[in-house]
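Duplicate of #3305? Posting structure anyway:
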């Protein structure tokens, strides 16, 4: 009943939000810009270098290989969500999907991960309009809660940039949403196709010049049966923003709501890959209900002094169901239901001084942030039996394990950055941030089958550190520029990891916890350098190299009990690589290419349990040694994008994604007889045709050549084959096609059929 009540309340909020914006349904053309809100446009000449949006920094003064993306690109490619866009376009990015749901991808960048799955070591921070959206409980990122058609642009800032706070080990992703000033008009899209996918999207924006108010709203309804058995998706999202601005001030109030339910299905053993659509075992599902409100503002005290700030409240209720099939024996499996209530709130305040310093151009920013998380996690395990491929609960009234955990996160930060221009060509950036993370846990966990006594989960943990950065830019001309720098970042252990850190009492993540020994904070140190330039005004290129070393890296260590394990500091790991990029426009042809080489290795020796690894000893353990490659990370990726205007009304585009092979999880020593999960190449096509100024038709084909490949691998025991040890793979989706129609009016127009934003 409570779940139905929550759904009803969420639907009522949706209706209220739509009604509120309906009064502004007649869009007007945008007027003057406010220079403090430049990041709400599609402009990619400047990027945000601090978590809180402000005036931005020119790319040629940023000492790292920042990658960008725009609303136009996302719309043209009909990207389902942000993770799909990142995978198809940006360098050093690869995704893996262990649960066969399009909204549940793990995104790896330079060998660091932003994942929606609890227990995955996280190494990327994600911000939406200055609000950190890594969830409080496990630093996970729920891609299903970020509506793609509300995005104005993104900046992928690489390295251990300390300004973006905790969890920025390999990079930070800054998402800026649209405003009605920059995105006026109305646009509605409906499409359908493979796997009974049906979707409706809309957005509307505009400006009331007399009242200095702008408004924007975007919504999505998405349903799909999924290409594999029991992999359906039901996603509803809505985002709205109301802004007020004048020549010196800007104020934005935004509201984001989402109600999602996603089924997932597990990886398939190699012996069963001839039927990739079949579910290994089921059911497995997760659902999110999000409500987030945020207020951000900025004010120029004088022409060279800007103060900015934000406050937010974010509530996410997640319900999960996991089947844990151990064998075909009666009562040898479990079904686990979980509920995670997370409340996040906080804010930031920063001051920027834009004036000259000792006769040289200088931009100084200092700020403070406070982010608080309050989590109630409950888990109940029920004995089950595998019937066919479904785990059926034996007795719903009898629990074989439960968790009741409360977690409190208090994160504080003080930061500053200064970009000093020695000349118009030479720039130096100095940055630093002091982080304090306090985590308090309380609760109990019991698992009679493994731990006869109840475990006390109570504990207090504190992490703190000052993280510095320095970088230089040299731009001898407008056509070439060099950069180099060094930075440090940190990650505090999450409540999930701290609640499952006792090797003597392993847990079945994310369903049963045991104890909370302390884990050391992870420290990342990054060196980066490169060059970028332009062959012409419309054709640019870049080349760079980097190395990041992690101290006290945290990994999930499997135990001898199948499905159980614990988190542990495993010493040093290293990611080093090379990035090459090209992008340009030649009359009607647009081209982009991004190559990434990532060498991700362990730099310390440790022992890990992996009974399904063919090289495991009699105790089911393997020895990981320095130089072994980290599983799940493709060593090489290449992304190609081409779009051609056949006529002013007709555009055709393609994405080609190539990825090298990767080692499966459980093969941390790289010695399992099954070897690596093979690499792949996949081709996607899209086309748009403008019937007139208001109506547009489009089509999209993914995996044009119907290649069979996998993006994820793990070692395990096949319960349908006498518990034989096998490599399991998550097969990628086969060829699929969708067609749709868009109606729009009042939007900004250009000559291209796809530049309707």
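Output from current build:
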């Amino acid at each position: 009943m409570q779940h139905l009540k929550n759904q009803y309340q969420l639907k009522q909020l949706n209706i209220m939000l739509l009604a509120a914006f309906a009064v502004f349904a007649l869009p007007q053309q945008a007027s003057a810009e406010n220079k403090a809100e430049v990041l709400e446009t599609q402009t990619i000449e400047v990027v945000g270098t601090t978590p809180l949006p402000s005036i931005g920094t020119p790319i040629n003064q940023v000492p790292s290989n920042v990658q960008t993306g725009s609303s136009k690109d996302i719309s043209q490619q009909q990207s389902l969500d942000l993770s799909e866009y990142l995978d198809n376009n940006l360098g050093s990015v690869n995704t893996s999907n262990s649960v066969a749901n399009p909204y549940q991808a793990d995104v790896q960048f330079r060998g660091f991960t932003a994942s929606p799955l609890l227990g995955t070591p996280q190494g990327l921070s994600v911000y939406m309009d200055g609000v950190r959206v890594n969830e409080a409980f496990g630093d996970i990122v729920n891609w299903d809660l970020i509506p793609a058609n509300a995005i104005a642009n993104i900046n992928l800032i690489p390295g251990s940039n300390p300004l973006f706070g905790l969890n920025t080990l390999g990079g930070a992703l800054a998402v800026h949403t649209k405003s009605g000033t920059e995105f006026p008009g109305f646009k509605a899209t409906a499409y359908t196709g493979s796997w009974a996918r049906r979707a409706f999207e809309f957005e509307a924006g505009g400006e009331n010049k007399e009242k200095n108010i702008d408004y924007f709203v975007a919504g999505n309804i998405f349903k799909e049966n999924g290409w594999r058995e029991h992999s359906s998706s039901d996603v509803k999202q809505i985002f709205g923003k109301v802004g007020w601005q004048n020549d010196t001030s800007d104020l934005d109030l935004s509201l984001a709501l989402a109600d999602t339910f996603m089924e997932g299905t597990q990886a398939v053993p190699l012996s069963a890959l001839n039927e990739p659509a079949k579910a290994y075992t089921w059911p497995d599902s997760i659902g999110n209900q999000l409500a987030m409100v945020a207020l951000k503002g900025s004010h120029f005290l004088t022409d060279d002094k800007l103060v900015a700030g934000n406050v937010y409240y974010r509530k996410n209720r997640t319900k999960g169901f996991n089947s844990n099939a151990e064998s075909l024996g009666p009562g040898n499996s479990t079904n686990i239901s979980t509920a995670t209530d997370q409340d996040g709130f906080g804010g930031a305040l920063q001051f920027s001084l834009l004036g000259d310093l000792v006769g040289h151009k200088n931009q100084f920013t200092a700020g403070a942030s406070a982010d608080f998380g309050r989590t109630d996690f409950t888990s109940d395990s029920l004995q089950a039996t595998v019937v066919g491929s479904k785990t059926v609960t034996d007795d719903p009234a009898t629990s074989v394990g439960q968790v009741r955990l409360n977690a409190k996160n208090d994160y504080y930060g003080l930061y500053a950055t200064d970009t000093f221009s020695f000349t118009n060509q030479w720039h130096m950036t100095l940055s630093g941030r002091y982080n304090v993370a306090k985590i308090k846990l309380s609760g109990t966990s019991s698992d009679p089958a493994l731990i006869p006594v109840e475990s006390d989960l109570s504990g207090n943990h504190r992490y703190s550190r000052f993280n510095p950065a320095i970088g230089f830019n040299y731009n001898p001309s407008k056509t070439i520029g060099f950069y180099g720098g060094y930075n440090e970042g940190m990650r505090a252990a999450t409540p999930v990891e701290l609640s499952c850190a006792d090797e003597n009492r392993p847990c079945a993540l994310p369903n049963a916890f045991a104890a909370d020994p302390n884990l050391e904070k992870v420290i990342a140190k990054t060196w980066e350098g490169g060059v970028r330039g332009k062959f012409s005004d419309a054709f640019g290129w870049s080349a760079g190299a980097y190395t990041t070393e992690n101290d006290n890296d945290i990994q999930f260590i499997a135990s001898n009990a199948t499905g159980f394990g614990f988190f542990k500091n495993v010493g040093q790991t290293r990611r080093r690589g090379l990035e090459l990029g090209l992008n340009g426009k030649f009359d009607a042809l647009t081209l982009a290419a991004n190559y990434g080489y990532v060498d991700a290795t362990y730099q310390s020796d440790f022992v890990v349990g992996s009974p399904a690894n063919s090289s495991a000893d009699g105790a089911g353990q393997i020895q990981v040694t320095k130089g072994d490659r980290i599983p799940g990370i493709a060593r090489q990726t290449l992304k190609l994008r081409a779009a051609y205007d056949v006529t002013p009304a007709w555009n055709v585009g393609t994405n080609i994604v190539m990825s090298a092979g990767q080692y499966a999880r459980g093969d941390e020593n790289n010695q399992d007889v099954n070897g690596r999960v093979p690499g792949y190449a996949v081709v996607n096509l899209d086309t748009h045709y403008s019937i007139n100024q208001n109506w547009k038709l489009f089509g999209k084909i993914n995996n044009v050549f119907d290649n069979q490949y996998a993006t994820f691998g793990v070692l395990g025991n096949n319960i349908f084959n006498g518990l034989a040890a096998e490599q399991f793979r998550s097969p990628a989706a086969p060829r699929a096609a969708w067609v749709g129609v868009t109606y729009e009016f009042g939007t900004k127009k250009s000559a291209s059929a796809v530049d309707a934003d």
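Confirmed duplicate; merging threads. Confidence is low (pLDDT under 50) at residues 1-32, 511-516. Residues 2-521+700-712 form a domain with the Maltoporin; Chain A fold (CATH 2.40.170.20).
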